[in-house]
């Protein structure tokens, strides 16, 4: 009963702190709300007209939704790069950033699930993904495994920070024996969510573009580059607009993680390009379409070369110690890397897998404004959720949010 009373107080205080703030805070939340409303309107149109209103067809049946889903799985998995050094290796420099990273993982996972719902056409079809009730097809279906690992990882990233913050809210220290086992499990689970997502594509033998042994490891490398890059940008904003203290050492250590992962990602990209173009076969047509175009069809050409340019330039900048330690340059490089990997791992991975089709026909894909509206709405929802989580966590960690029952006692 006492814990329930504390929980009620925490909910009440969280609502209070998240509904009050500066003009910039209210403008930010108002902007996100507006974008979410636009996204809801676009989703209503999709429910009314069906998936025919999107740019997807029977030729290219996965588009902007699945591209964002794939990318965000990596963003969610990146939280492990903060969890492992903080909870397992006891690195004090990561301690201030780990709760922010886990909050980002929660927001990313919720966006992942939202993109799956959008791609299925409507929420009424979700019952197919429920064990026992739906046609779950476990353990043969890789999609089934993906549903399990994503929801399991979401639970871990909700429960561990909640326990720690719940204890800190009461002015008590969290017991490591309670959360360390979960933290250790989340390290392996983070790798699993990305590998299983990669296996989902690798297992489709009829799509040679995805039938690549490097797909799983490259998923991890790109995730551990883009995810921590986003975390650096978020921490920079938190440090600027909130009283939460983020040390320079923390940003520099995360930047080192980003640098190594970006370098490995580029090495794997070069390996893939060598495999596709040194001794090309008819299975290389998807790669040719992506990088050079086929039969005059070049819709993805500017996208993929922009992504490669951003990735290479960002990696080169991060490689030099003096440039990486200049925070203005670091933030710029992280922004380029994030956008570059988003393009490469989104459009650059999903769409070419369907082109050319089984009979050699090239049917290009371009997202409609409805798809773009739904996508922006889901991203705004993720930013909205993360802002609420971060504001509450920062309030507790800076001790401005405390259980008042302690004072009465």
From TrEMBL:
Pfam families with a match to the protein in the record: NrfD
Keywords, comma-separated and alphabetical: Cell membrane, Membrane, Transmembrane, Transmembrane helix
GO terms under cellular component: plasma membrane
Location(s), subcellular: Cell membrane
Superkingdom of the source species: Bacteria
Transmembrane intervals: 27-46, 66-85, 97-118, 147-166, 178-199, 219-238, 250-270, 300-320, 327-352, 372-394
Membrane topology classification: Multi-pass membrane protein
Family membership: Belongs to the NrfD family.
Listed name of the protein: Polysulfide reductase
Organism (species): Sediminicola luteus
């Amino acid at each position: 009963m006492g814990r329930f009373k504390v929980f009620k107080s925490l909910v009440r205080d969280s609502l209070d702190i998240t509904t009050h703030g500066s003009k910039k805070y209210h403008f930010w939340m108002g902007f996100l709300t507006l974008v979410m409303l636009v996204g809801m309107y676009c989703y209503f149109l999709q429910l009314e007209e069906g998936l025919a209103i999107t740019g997807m067809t029977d030729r290219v049946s996965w588009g902007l939704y699945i591209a964002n889903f794939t990318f965000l799985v990596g963003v969610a998995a990146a939280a492990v790069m903060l969890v492992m050094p903080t909870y397992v290796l006891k690195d004090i420099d990561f301690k201030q950033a780990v709760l922010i990273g886990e909050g980002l993982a929660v927001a990313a996972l919720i966006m992942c699930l939202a993109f799956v719902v959008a791609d299925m056409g409507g929420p009424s079809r979700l019952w197919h993904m429920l064990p026992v009730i739906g046609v779950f097809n476990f353990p043969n279906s890789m999609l089934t495994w993906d549903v399990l690992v994503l929801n399991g990882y979401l639970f871990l990233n909700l429960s561990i920070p909640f326990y720690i913050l719940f204890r800190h809210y009461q002015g008590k220290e969290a017991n490591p024996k309670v959360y360390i086992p979960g933290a250790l499990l989340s390290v392996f689970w983070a790798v699993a969510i990305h590998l299983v997502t990669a296996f989902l594509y690798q297992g489709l033998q009829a799509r040679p573009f995805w039938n690549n042994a490097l797909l799983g490891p490259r998923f991890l490398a790109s995730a551990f580059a883009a995810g921590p890059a986003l975390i650096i940008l978020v921490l920079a904003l938190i440090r600027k607009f909130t009283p939460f203290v983020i040390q320079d050492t923390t940003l520099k250590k995360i930047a080192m993680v980003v640098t190594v992962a970006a370098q490995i990602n580029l090495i794997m990209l070069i390996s893939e390009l060598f495999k596709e173009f040194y001794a090309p076969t008819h299975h290389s047509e998807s790669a040719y379409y992506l990088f050079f175009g086929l039969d005059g069809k070049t819709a993805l050409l500017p996208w993929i070369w922009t992504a490669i340019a951003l990735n290479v330039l960002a990696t080169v900048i991060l490689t030099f110690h003096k440039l990486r330690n200049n925070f203005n340059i670091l933030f710029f490089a992280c922004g380029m890397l994030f956008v570059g990997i988003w393009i490469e791992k989104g459009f650059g991975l999903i769409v070419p897998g369907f082109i050319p089709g089984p009979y050699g026909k090239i049917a290009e894909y371009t997202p409609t404004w409805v798809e773009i509206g739904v996508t922006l709405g889901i991203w705004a929802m993720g930013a909205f959720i993360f802002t609420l989580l971060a504001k509450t966590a920062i309030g507790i960690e800076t001790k401005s949010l405390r259980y008042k029952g302690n004072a009465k006692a």
